[in-house]
Amino acid sequence: MTEHKAAIYEWHNGQLRVLEHPREGMDLEQVLLDLPAGTYEALRTRDQAKFFRLDRHLERGVAGCKASGLPEPDPQALCEGINAAARHFAWEAKLRIDFLPHPSAMLDMRSTVLLSFHPLQLPPQETYQRGVGVYPTSQLKRFSPVIKGTAFIAARTAHKRLHEDDFEPILLDPDGYCLEGVMSNFFCFRGDTLHTAGTGVLGGITRETLLACAAELGLQVVEEAVHENQINRMNEGFLSSSVRGVLPVVRFAGKDIGNGKPGPRTLALDAAYGELVRSSSRPALPSDESA
């Protein structure tokens, strides 16, 4: 079977440009690290050319441009470009949208928005069924929690995992409270009460969706960070992201959360979220709704 490779695009003057990979043999992720520092959004395709809450991702992306002093893209043109690129790529993918301060000369760009499509690689199904371990770190910090800045990608890439079976670091504030993962939002349950940090974290699109799902399921939500020393009092935990969805967390700093297995409330939230994603994913352009 032919390997499907990542591809990079831009939308310029109403035309899709397929950009050449500038460094043969170098992973595209490394190429993206060499782009001018800017902001970005990341999400996944559904049925190759549909997206869940793309409008919210673009709203956050434009807000990040405003806050960072970056050129602001035209949302309609951006949707046209995403739609064209997704149909050209024609493969289930992780989409990264980079908002740059100026066109990249390395990629021979003519605009300031780069669309990179990477063949979708999710954790194995058994990982979702078994759950993962996470560990706390005070060595990593976002430069600005409200902006999804690319400079943080370089910092988290350089960060070394403490243990091989630790899936993702959890950022701590100066007082030891758990904020979020480096690529995810972090949640934990004590009984029927869902805890997650309400400040000092990136406002995740999946996070806000899950909080709404929790309310519909009758779960109490407390948007306050839990101290790392209090995690042993929690019964369940999970990570959330737009690409990976809901991923149960069963260990924190090498110790089991609850009984060390994905819990029933996490699984119920995951099911509610999954159903919403299936019923609400749409093409980037409303005119392609029936496609």
Q: Which features does this protein show?
A:
single chain, 291 residues, D-amino Acid Aminotransferase, Chain A, domain 1, D-amino Acid Aminotransferase, Chain A, domain 2, 2 domains, nine-stranded mixed beta sheet, five-stranded antiparallel beta sheet, 16 strands, globular
- The number of domains is 2
Overall pLDDT level: 91
Shape: globular
The quaternary state of the protein chains shown equals: single chain
CATH topology of the largest domain: D-amino Acid Aminotransferase, Chain A, domain 2
What integer value in Å does the Rg equal? 19 Å
N-end to C-end Cα span: 27 Å
Helix and strand composition category = alpha+beta
Count of DSSP H/I helices = 7
Number of strands: 16
Which architecture of the largest domain per CATH? Alpha-Beta Barrel
**Helicity range of the residues?**
25-40%
- Uncertain parts: none
Largest sheet, in brief, is: 9 strands, mixed
H/E series: EEHEEHHEEHEHEEEEHEEEEHE
Strand content: 25-35%
Q: Name the CATH superfamily classification of the largest domain.
A: D-amino Acid Aminotransferase, subunit A, domain 2
CATH class of the largest domain: Alpha Beta
